[in-house]
Amino acid sequence: MTIRWTYAFADRPAARLAEACAFWTAVTGTRLSAFRGEHGEFVTLLPEAADPGVKLQGVAEGDGGAHIDLCADDVRELTARARRLGADLVADHGDWAVLRSPAGQLFCAVPWHGETVRPPVVSGSRLDQVCLDIPPSRYDAESAFWAALTGWERQAGSRPEFAVLRPPAGLPVRLLLQRLDEERPASAHLDLACADITAVRARHEELGAAAAREGAHWTVMRDPAGGTYCLTGRDPETGGLPAGGGLREQDAGAR
Q1: Which residues pair with 107 in a beta bridge?
Q2: Where are the alpha helices (DSSP H) in 85-243?
Q3: For residue 194, what pLDDT is reported?
Q4: Burial class (CB in 10 A: 0-12, 13-18, 19+), 82
Q5: Looking at residue 95, what is its pLDDT?
Q6: How far is CA 239 from the centre of its chain?
Q7: How far, in Å, CA of 221 to CA of 230, rounded?
Q8: Is the pTM of this model over 0.85?
Q9: 20, 27 contact by CB (below 8 A)
Q10: d(CA 141, CA 186)
Q11: Residues 121-147, buried b or exposed e (16+ Cβ, 10 A)?
């Protein structure tokens, strides 16, 4: 079983989906697909001359968050594999399925439609990572689950609380595994790789986002729909940390 493509999904309150669409199309240089779903809750961000890698969902309850879609030739096989590894089936939609990881993180198994061309860098940044925020008591088992499910190479991050699962070259979205410093429910957020965090932050603020706090080499932001995401100091072309920064290139998931 091979993961053929990945999508980063931003989940935002349905009442604020329009705000999320306006913001995320602007920062990713994309346009909206037709809305779909029973309540028009799903939409894809379409880049020019490339295949999409980001989608939005309007959720009826809660503040939203993020999740990853894993695309495969055989969704049934992918779903069965996830369940054997400890995931729970949340909803079976026939040709796609919603699952919950052992630590409680939602994700989707969906069919591959032939996507091959990664979306480009836009204005010095690229949305290329879903960060899974994992409570410490579940971190080892959850990390093992995602590594086994994807088959991706697992590497240490620049800090002990981080590990990255790097997909094969060409896939648009990878996974960062972050061990939280407190026990709370598992969650997820989106990360952008930025050539210049300060410049990207200024552009995002002009579009209605607000900075929430600063990290070692990342800035936590809040988009106009209230969703949290991070600007990270990584090369948007390679996903790696800058050379000469005292950190190894293999620490590509570090934030």
Answers
A1: 99
A2: 139-150, 197-206
A3: 98
A4: buried
A5: 96
A6: 13
A7: 6
A8: yes
A9: no
A10: 13
A11: bbbebbbbbbbbbbbeebbeebbebbb
CA torsion, ordered 231, 234, 240, 245, to nearest 10 deg: -130
User: What are the 10-residue block averages of pLDDT along the chain, 255 residues in total?
Assistant: 95 97 98 96 97 97 94 98 98 97 98 98 97 97 98 88 94 97 96 98 98 92 97 94 48 40
Distances (CA, A) of 193 to 173, 186, 219, 235, 238: 11, 23, 11, 6, 9
pLDDT of residue 246: 36
Q: Letter for the amino acid at 97?
A: A
Question: In terms of residues, how long is the chain?
Answer: 255
C-alpha 251/C-alpha 126 separation (Å) is: 17
Among 178, 213, 217, 177, smallest CA distance to 196 is for 217
Please report where in the chains the tokens 């070259």 appear, as a residue.
169
One-letter amino acid at 210 equals A
User: Hey, what are 253's tokens?
Assistant: 């998931």
